[in-house]
Fold these 4 entries.
Entry 1:
Amino acid sequence: MQLTVNGTTHEVDVEDDMPLLWVLRDVLGITGVKYGCGIAQCGACTVHIDGVAERSCQIAAADLDGPVTTIEGLGTPDALHAVQQAWIEHQVAQCGYCQSGQIMNAAAFLAETPDPTDDDIDDAMSGNLCRCGTYPRIRAAVKSAAASLRGA
Amino acid sequence: MSRLGTIARRTFLIGSVAIAGGVAFGVYMARRPHPNPLAAGLAEGEATFNPWVKIDADGITLITPHSDVGQGVRHMQAMLIAEEMDLDPGQFTTDFGPPDPAYWNRAFSEEGAPFMSRDDSWGAETARTVVGYVVKIFGIQATGGSTAVADSFDKLREAGAVARETLKLAAAQRSGVPVANLTTAGAAVTLPDGTQIAYTDLAAEAAALDPVTDVTLRDPSEWRLIGKPQRRLDIVEKSTGTATYGIDLALDGMVHATVRFNPRQGGALNGYDASAAEAMRGVQKILPVTNGVAVIADNTWRAFQAADAIEYDWAEAPYPAEQDDHWAALSASFTEDRLDDEWRHEGDVPAALAAADPIEAEYRAPYVAHAPLEPLNALILVTDARVDIWAGHQIPRTVEDMVAGITGHDVADVHFHNQYAGGSFGHRLEFENIRYAAEIGAQMKDTPVKLTFSREEDFAHDYPRQIAMARGAGAVTDGAVTTYDLSIASPSPIASQMPRAGFPAPPGPDMQIVAGAWNMPYKIDNLRVRAYRAPELAPVSSWRSVGASHAGFFAEGFLDELIHAAGRDPLEARIGMCDYDVARKVLEAVGEMSNWGSELGAGRGRGVAFVSSFGTPTAEVVEVTATEDGIKIDRVFVAADVGRVVDPVNFENHVQGAVVWGLGHAMNCEITYADGMAEQSNYDWHEAMRLYQCPEIVVRGLENQPKIRGIGEPPVPPAAPALANAIFAATGQRLREMPFNKFVEFV
């Protein structure tokens, strides 16, 4: 099958039911996307499919129906996305393992909801677990990123 | 004999002769520094001044041997060296370094002796010195116990100062300018005429010098970095998906593996049928491992699928199969023969209780999982000549010992490469990923193998926090708490954990059973705290804040009951009873921060708790609202005294995270056993806190105590009792058992 990840098209030979998560990590070697739970409870595997935040552990390879963007495609250390910039300014990360998923979730959310209320943020971000407990900083960073994206 | 065997034997010896014979041996051995591991294999023109600094013409490398499990110690260690060396971020790289006895942990001695951390008497300090000798002699390199800052603070500044002064000496010899007229800044030595000589230019000359060890550390008023908000060295990579964790590593020709071993922990595998799995796509091998099997495949998911397709016949668990029997074992442990130690007895508690109509209560704390988000994993390559293993782990030398014991290599030929860990909370003090990677690697010589645990397998073998139970009895007289008696029964987490690391369980009582309770800084006429050692049940392990995570809840929950019975204000009563200045200031600070005493309104309540663990007195105030749908946690205020806040940004982040950890698990997490297996296998049944439940968390670091202390664990223990006490204030309902969602809803 063919899939497009971060603008590059790949041909892969995998089972129909292999989750996108493992196609990305083990077949294509794209490791910014993380395995945390495998059952859509933690959000560490969040990617964008056609701009929509999805749990890649729940997307079977055969069901993939759009281009995939991972954290590597959102922005890079030299060309940061506004959400990444906010995550850095607020020094959100501790272990950092969940943060790829948090950032991807926040980026898709802000694209849909440019001027979120506190409740909007709580609703949108509560599907992503952070075992280190960086939630206060995630909230602050989402607000900063929203302001920055609106100004841009 | 392996190094591990030797250590184990000697540990027994030292343990049994601790004070008597240990000192003389210790003084001789302890004064001898460990050789610098960087000196071996140094290239021409490369200089090293101590185990933490290496320079050549191309750059400066700082060694940060404490494991970074998310707490930011890679950054912290580098900044302590950089402060004295006059380096700026970007002017050096860091390396976790080789496992080596030179990186022994100085700070383990602080909590390793059975004295209160505030006790600076001759006896307490002598005991700490002896423990320090043991830790040094055996070269125990470990990250844990909130010790990284305490261990590093002087040591790494000295390392930086030694490097700086030696480089200045090299510059003096080259330029003819006396050392006294040289200054340093920006990774260079500056001559009086303003000429700068980069450290890297001086490396070859400095390499020929004996390091200058007579150095003076900078006065705090001169610090550029310490105490100032800093930008973590890892923040960009951790915000862009470019940080590499153990689970992300790959080598050419690598295959993927997973394991499935008896979920009745420690039980055997009677037999299995892998015929279906063997035929599955990508499956290369099914290998026997201790109490289970490993699947080797060309992809992690295929390995997981195949492991699911195997039929297993697991043997019974070596502990009670049902949770009720675990509680029954604790309940039956409050007996004379199970008395582990009477840690404290002031006044005459039996007489006081006999003369009163005592207030009594029973408290419980369940098993809880660590479940860091990065599942256990390890990458290994075993050849005839050597073993290389990559993983995030907190006890690097023991990893090498264990691998050597399994593969049969000399320990000198085993090389552990530490990695960023996606959280730990104590999980990466255990060795299951290491043990199984070594067993698999030994059967897959010359092929790199990456072992990844499924989340379910990780939960099944989490080695949770110990269960514990407490019985409190007390009395109040004329508006004062006059008698306080707390008995705590728990299996010993240390006795369970140490043998898995290859060490014998240490002799004597386990302070963790009463940690955070026996050292409460209160003067009460009749005060007693006793520990009862329950039999070993399910295997347990150190969970962020260890014993204080249960004992702090019991101690401060029950104290709150007595204060209420005395008709006193919870905070004022604690401050009134407090007999330790540093602790009193912490309580006063949290009172001021929370505007304690101000009106909150109907359905709202405030609770306070104070626990000192790992030497850090910490007080927290929790504010809740009892809504129609359940308890909402509104705000939390935290004051903690660590002696010196090294980085206020990371300090705040760390405290907030510890509060989220303490509250979240108290709210809704427990591991229970049925049929010998943990019933909770993923985050849907062990959720902890999600973002919408997270309160505002206001943090203040105090600097009144004389010793420098850690902050990773101490904010955890007060969180649960402060929440329980707040819920009582708001609703009148007293919560004596975690998780609290058995009794109240949370929104």
Note: Chain A has six helices and five strands.
Entry 2:
Amino acid sequence: MKDFHEKKYGMVIDLDKCTGCGSCMVACMSENNVPFKEDETKKRLSITWMKVYKFTNGKSFPETEVCYLPRPCMHCEGHGGHSPCVSVCPATATDYSTETGIVSQIYTRCFGCRYCMGACPYHARYFNWWDPVWPKGMEKQLSPNVSPRMRGIVEKCSFCYHRLQLAKEKAYSEGRREVRENEYQTSCTQGCPAGAITFGDLINPKHEVYKLKKDQNAFRLLERLGTNPKVYYISSREWVRRAGDNYLAHEKTGKKQNH
Amino acid sequence: MSDSDEKNGQSGIITLFFILGFIGSLLLGWIIFPELLYSKKEQPVAFNHALHNEEVANGCESCHFFREDGTFSGVPKLAQCVECHEEPIGVSEAELTFVTDYVAKGREVPWLIYSKQPDMVFFSHAAHVKMGKQDCVTCHGHIGESTSLKPYEENRFTGVSRDIWGGNIAGISMDSWDSMKMSDCDKCHKELTGRQTSVQTQRDACFVCHK
């Protein structure tokens, strides 16, 4: 069956390469004008479009193993573009694009009911409890390509959509309709010093992610919910792959469960 | 005097008050409210588009050009004006003020941009002009033929230029350049591209024009 997307942008993150350094989080926050507060100790109130989770295999020394898992928005396709958050939004503030496969969030349409946050199984959505305040002088580093948010609305990772807009603009001015793979890359992808994140068009055989998503060890988070996410993870470790979803003791991880 | 006469007299007064009130509300809504809603500012320098258009070689793109990365320069910076106006080259008073107040002091002119969209809007000139082959006039009207700049009107609540909503308070536009609301963009997108990439709305996806 032919995919209904024109492009289907997605990510493959190699968890064996991720060192948990947090560069992707920093790159994301500075790229997308993500607000922070003076006191960021209450992580429950922090806004982190990209968040690195740490988990272990639960065994004691010397068998302990640690894995770091960067979690952007999964840009779920669901079935036919009905991702969990898009389905529940009463304001059409969040939408699914068949042009890119990206789940958009329009801040001026959102009125802050937070249904989408409840619907998202990945905790990828964040609520602005306060108006953003940047320390004096820091507002000068804000990117004009990303509109800042206000109190009372929900925000989330956009796969650095503004970078595609700018890449398209450049392509158009050169008389091209197609954007090259290296012209549209997310901030976290470029910020990762380990090269753990790969970004591209999942349905374009020429793109790196097309090959990587077919890796034997590739899996997606909570895949069996039917959210059909566009972020793939790779790990050679069985316990890491098992942590990606809820498995019964006799069930095996692997390709078979993929939709 | 009979009862019915009295009633007729009363209903006449009621009708009169109704008509007066009706006219009053119409005046309030259609004339007084728009006057109050927008603040008026004059542009810092009196600029004559028609005059410049005759002098330059490449039409609008002589001053409003595309940068190498595909972005659009919009309103010219002082550096561009200085290319010709280092010294006054005409006799007009406006030019003299411009040279003494801005060029000589190296100050940028704080132009007020009629077509400036709100913050959450992404507009690509390259997509419309280079790829879509649209004329400047389609959205900007015949400003290139104007001899003076109209006052800049700003919505007191939103801080957005009146040209975005358009002059008509009801939001009705006769020509394609009358207003630049989302519905205006969407109308043209629907007619010219017919794309339905938004799952929710069956129109062009939100992340085409929003950022």
Note: Residues 161-173 of chain A form the longest helix (13 residues).
Entry 3:
Amino acid sequence: MLRKNGGRNQLRANLIFIAIGIVLFLVSNRVDELRVYQGATVAVYVVAISSIILLTGYSGQISLGHGALMAVGGYAAVLSRNDWHAPVWLSFVVAVLAAALFGAILGVAAGRLSGPYLAGTTLALAVGLPSLANQFSVLGGEQGLNYDVGQPPLSLGQDFTQYHWYFWIAGLAALVMTWLVHNVLGSRYGRNWRAARSNPTAAALAGIHIGRSKILAFTISAGIAGLAGALLAMTLSLVTPSAFPLALSFAIVTGAVLAGVTLLTGSIVGAVVLVAIPELTDALATHLGGSERVTANLPGLMMSALLIVSVLFFPNGPRLFRR
Amino acid sequence: MSGLVITNLEVNHGAIRAVRNLSFTVESGQLAAVIGANGAGKTTLLRALSGLKHVHAGNATWHETSIINKKPENLVRSGIVHVSDGKAVIPELSVKENLALSGIWRKDKKDVARATTEVLDLFPILAARLSQSADSLSGGERQMLAIGRALIARPSLLLLDEPSLGLAPLIIEQIFSAINSLRHTYDLTVLLVEQNATSALQIADIGIIINLGELVTVGPSHSLLNDPALRAAYLGY
Amino acid sequence: MERFINTILIGISGGSIYGLMALALVLVWRSTRVVNFAQAGQAILSTYIGYVVISHTNNYWLAFPVAVISGALIGALVDILLIRIMVKRAHQGPVAAIAPVIATLGLLGLIRAVVGLIWGGDLRQFKLPVTNHGFTFGHTTIPFAPINLLIVVITFLVMLIFALIFQRTNLGLALRASAYQPEIARLSGIRVDLTRTIGWAFAGSAGAIAGILVTPTNYLAPNSLDLLLVSGFVAAVIGGLESLVGAAVGGLILGIGLAFVLEYVSSSLAFPAAFMVLIAVLLVKPAGLIGSKRSRNA
């Protein structure tokens, strides 16, 4: 009975994912270039946020350093494409694997830590790792490295722009990744993570290896972040240290908190908010006749205020999305 | 004159209503023993009286002043001192520092010094260990330290939570006799929460028996001790 | 040999700053069980306030106390306006345990944005209170300069003052009691909320001192103390996160260690070296080199 039900839910979820894909495809043909580019960015954030949702919402670990893991993925994708001439899809796979490997190493430390130690360690990573790229010439220093995923295939038509192409790739990647994460969370592993998070002692007594379970979560989450990094590099068409600032790590945590942390469907809300805030503050800054100072800092101000308010008053996500 | 008057008190512990519609009175200068099994709501009652727990409904007054839903530190400063369960000492601090805590906020530093001397006379073992960390004390010594610290605050109402918990019978006897002599020396009103019913009732004036958060009976302790039905049901022998 | 001693001297000077930041983090951790990532923000705001005083009076020694007092006030305000609410609203749910960390993170972002709004993002030079030209003995000039000596001396004095306050005064006793066992402190009549706010103020002033001491040797920008936050955290972890002495010693260990890596290995390896130290300490001796036996799962 339960199994049958689960099967039906699974089928319904799959249909929903396909439906979303079709809708996005149709919409992308009817809006202007800027919106399409923003759509691609939303897709990048959806991937990044779902990595935090998996890690924090399910496994109960915190990471303030996922921006750095995105950097690992971004640089890995670029290097594999530029140096080995890997096809785009393969460079994405390399990004996932490189970040996952990095995450596994980190996860060995992280699995034994929690709370402040994990937060501090990952913060250290976020602050320090991207700047390392400045010191190795193979990583291109300040200027970074170019990343070219190529022109859209001609079969898509003359009007099909580069941004549309980015949107398609990022959107498809986001859709596939969300589907995968959805399935992982519903699997034995997802249940183990939740059990280990809410009552470690009971979970351990029930035979769940807490440490291993946490390392696995960290590894998978890092891999997803790596994909997000590669996608980000694609939309920017390059990787630089400054593409992965501390603010990026904070932004995806903010997005995850806004998304409600435990709900995968919230990731799209979080991602839209992350893209909308700079847009809104830009408009606001122009309206105020603001200087460069205002334009540069208003998004950070809004984002931080939103983060504080949401964690103070809706730490488990807005009621709207709560099951 | 009425000392502690509790009327229709309702206190939650988590999702559970741990104290229900509880009313009793302890006259000034009396020693009242609150008796009940584990989970009867005794500790919740004390925590409500010392401000650590929010009171849902009802009232508690000490000398006609309401004491519910006040800050614990303000209640301490007005003479209502709670020695929380077991060995309420700070193990990271020395014995001397533990005792000094109650004197920090007191204006009358001469009286603090006097009170400290009295406590050390009462419990000479503490005097020998002043500079040791409280971590190194035995269970009984910790209990003495906790009570000693309470006394330095010069309480008028002392709330004691299971001072006998986990102690050897000989030490229990020592602690109880100390409590008994204290309240005469300092004219204290004492609310003593205990599972160790017999020892508590032997030094108490009145006994208050509660079960599952509700009052079973209040009466002079000697009559409770001699009531065979109560003994069987609540005192466990 | 000379190079060796020079490296140690420079390490002590750098480590002093790390120690001060670690001290700020430890003070808050002990009293509130939160690693306050906003500490870097509070320190940068205090340093900018000091900068305003310098640009008006051209007097570092006036800016110093102003920054320290601002740091204390900012720390107290953060506790009153944010942390008290946070503690009172202690939540259930998956994020409950990490909500305070996220809140301090949000505060860091908020303060940086506010600083950027007021002073802009450009790098600013900060007046040196004393010269940064190394001491000269006969014909040799060593890297260790009067500014480094000043940093070491002030840090030592600050640590001494904190040690005296904590060990010798009633306020210190109240701070320690409230940190170890808030409930028992409360039941002894101590105003724990007020005491904790004072702890936050002390932490804020320690962070401000770190900021205003290190900035003249570097530059001032809204994010110029981010790396210091990380170093301070590493130093605090080496010291066990609970101990004030540990914070100071952890700072010195990290400072001297990094100075050696920079001098003898490569100047580009400072960050990886610090990060490796952090990971190594956490894996090998999770309670810190000087820490207590408490677990790190708090």
Note: Residues 293-298 of chain C have pLDDT under 50 and may be disordered.
Entry 4:
Amino acid sequence: MSKKAIVFDIQRASLHDGPGIRTTIFLKGCPLNCLWCHNPEATSAHRQLFFHFDKCTQCGDCEKVCKEGVTHFNDGKHTIDYHKCKFCGKCVDACNFNALKITGTEMSIEEVMLEIMADVDFYTNSGGGMTLSGGEPLMHFSFSLELLKKCKEMCVNTCVETSGFVSTIQFNQILPYVDLLLFDYKVTGTSDYMNFTGVPNKLILENLDIAYHHGVPIILRCPIIPGINDTDLHFKGIHALNEEYPNLIGIEILPYHTMGNNKRTSIGSEETLTHLKTVPPEVSDKWIELLKNLGCEKAKIG
Amino acid sequence: MQKIDDFSMELNFTETYRRNINEHIAIREARCHQAQFPAVLTEIQDNDRLAGRTFWGWVGFSPHNAPNGAAYGYFCHEQKIIEAIERGNIPLEQRDGVHELLHFWKKETSKAKVEAAFTEKMLPVLFRDEIVSLPYNFKPLIANPIYRMAGVFVDYEKLLRLGIPGLKTEITEYMEKSKASGGDYKLYEGMLIALDVFTESCRHYEKQALEKAQITNDPKRAKELFQLVKVLKKITVSKPESFYEALQLSWLYTLICGSLELGRVDVYLGDFYVNDIDNGIITEKEALSLMHSYWRLINELFRDVDGRVIIGGRGRRNEANADRFALLVLETMRTYGRAILPQTTLRFYEGMNPELMEKSISLIGDGHTFPLLYNDDVLVSGVAAAHDVPVEDAEQYMPLGCGEIVIDHMGFGTPSGSLNVLKALDVTLRNGVDHISDKQLGLQTGHLKDFKTFDEFFDAFKEQLAFFIEILADHEELEYLESGKQAPYLYLSILYDDCIARGKAIFSGGIKYLGGSLESFGSVNTADSLTAIKKMVFDEKLISAEGLLEALNNNFVGFEKEHKLLKECPKYGNDDKYADDMMVELHDYMCNTIRDQRDRTNLDWYLNVLINNKQNTILGRWVGASADGRKAGREMANANTPAGGNDKKGVTALINSLVKPSHAIHAGTVQNMRFGRDFFTNDRTKFEVILHTYFKKGGAQAMITVINRGDLENALVEPEKHQDLFVRIGGFSARYIDLPRDVQYEILSRVTY
């Protein structure tokens, strides 16, 4: 029996998740809960009902077919009890305006490999390959391990984008099949890490150290959120890591953008950081300048 | 200024034709050329370095739509003449004559001769009397005849090798031989008169240039004009020796013979250019100045769908020199700035001087919509197979206008008909009846509900397609036959293999290959519709046959559920086997059935072309809602490109789909790809890899536009600020803001990567 995992997206012709032209596999589920997450629908490891409120015409067709009492129309307002949903998909079929979907599809290793191998000529010619992302892909440890092994069997370059929050034993097993790690470094300082991401940073820093000494090429990926981690402390923290690990092959700054925020309400969560706007390039350019002045020559916008 | 309501040329032309109506057709045509040239040649403009501009009359002779909408051969532009009559400005003494010539040409134009010869089978399908000229085709037709002899690529190498005097010598020798053996020598006599007309035209411009040189106050301009006088004098008395002379001769011949294509300029001009540069006869700057004048003339005189300047590729005898000239062409494009014409075309193969491709990609990235890219590693063998010609002839393939492939000065293949494939499917659902005009347009093959299996239905559709294809093939054959009977097309016959040697005119057995092509439109929507019908009606039975027709008849209004189901069916362009297999089956059937027509006709080839111009939009107006979810009257997908917005899985999946239909069975497809400027500027290496991989995987052709969606949206709001925004719609480039609004929306709806 092939292993399966919940995939919430497969992006072909992906240009910015590692070298060359790539296919990025997004697995659903993440142990972290970062305030700024731009893929909030990837937090839960389960399938979820997803509602595009702006597409809804209030026709009421979904209410008629739902046996679980998930959708209601009261006073011209369409409300959803997300927790009642059993993912039967009847409301999705009933909606003529594609306002409802179920995010997350269970896929086997074979199915995912089929999609990956379709673009193998593009990988060969561009030095690209497969990128495993999420959520936190290593949450699905055995699926990820097997998928990475399969890719290596087929000579497909592999890249893993991870928060690093994974058991060290499992992380060690993954490393031999990874050509490049896109390793998140989100916040500097133990308590802030906990406050903003929901998890402690000890394990993450240990894993970074393990990966580095294992010799896997690493690009550090740092989301920068105004008012949260655009601090001297954090930029110095990034610099410190660069000093400690001089062979990091890159440091990418990911400036905050708001494009993920309305997805929160679509899955029944509260919006976060509603006061923030997408960071304009002149601000993010300053961050790069600052990092370069500190000595992080390799810092650039990711 | 041209006095548009002075009909002296038209009256003289008509009178000449009538006087010679019973003469040998070669003599008649030659004398008509005398009436036409230099009368329709217009003045050298202030910045012209080359002589040769035209303002065709409303009556005349030309292979290809000289004034737009005038058809071809002996033409009479009724609409323009009637407009002039209604303006009331025609000189009194000409009025009776003008009224009378309208009557005379009604039965005498080349188009009228073809229509008069329609067979019983053609009459009800081709609607002889109801054809309204494009782009305003108000008739919801499936098979549309097209009247033109498009795609003239004369033997420029021979022209420049022999010059006018050398050609005359050769023709005279053949004429003497023919006379001695009692053959039909009149064709040669006509050719000689035609060349005299050409020489007269050179002298006409020589005189004009001299006059202008003498009166100008600008010493620099005077010097240029005196130089032009010398060049023009030289080409009347001898073969060209300098680059300037070669360029002038080839340009004027192009114009007078009525061609709208420039052909393999790097081959026929390369040696002259290199010789002049290497021997200090001309400077790079001077050569570039001449090229700018050439570019400007092409831009001002030709239309957006024509004007192919072709560089690069296999089969160039002087490759090193040709490459150097090709680089001059690219430099001309760069320095001239973005322009709609010429349609510069780069043919390339692995191993060719990489500088040509590198420079071309830079131009594309800078927003020039050219060059168009043609992959010889796929196309040479593809043309050899499809056209059934030896590889050395296939190496001389030339994409004309919108992309129909013919063979340089050996093979003609004018597209003489278009087929609206989606409309053919539309009537197949309804027992051959068009529900818009309530006419029986197709065969009575049954209603959708009558078919038990999808295969039965598909077979009925194939039967319908074959019916229209046969009629269009017969029409192509008829068009050549009637054209040949009426005129030898002297300027073409002089420079097409093997007319002089055989003593026969181009369309009367003289040309080496007489081919043809059929423009098909709407194949992608058709394939996607077939996929949806198969899946929804026959396999999954989620929609009944009656339900589908009702939904289509109501343009999906009140049938949102059906519309959603149909839209969600697999679509071509996403590397999805279900949808792509259907496209391949349709493509194979269409191409092979069209290709088989050469067994029914005397054509050396007859091939499908999946090119595009504006017709996907224009013909789409008369197609009702289709089963792929397209709404009534909306544009059909362009050429071989997925329907707007349907390629959702990114450019790699798109490419994987694009390379599935075979290239060895048709005469040209167009593959539109748009890349956002960011993609191009920030990820140029990746862009190049994608392109390279596409070609390695068997991609034959690419038309790449680099723009971003924001550009287009802004242009809709503030058109005056976006006049420099050019887009390519398959066969031609256009200023975006000049396009009809629905065409603008259609372009906008295509995905930008």
Note: Chain B touches chain A through 22 residues (CB under 8 Å).
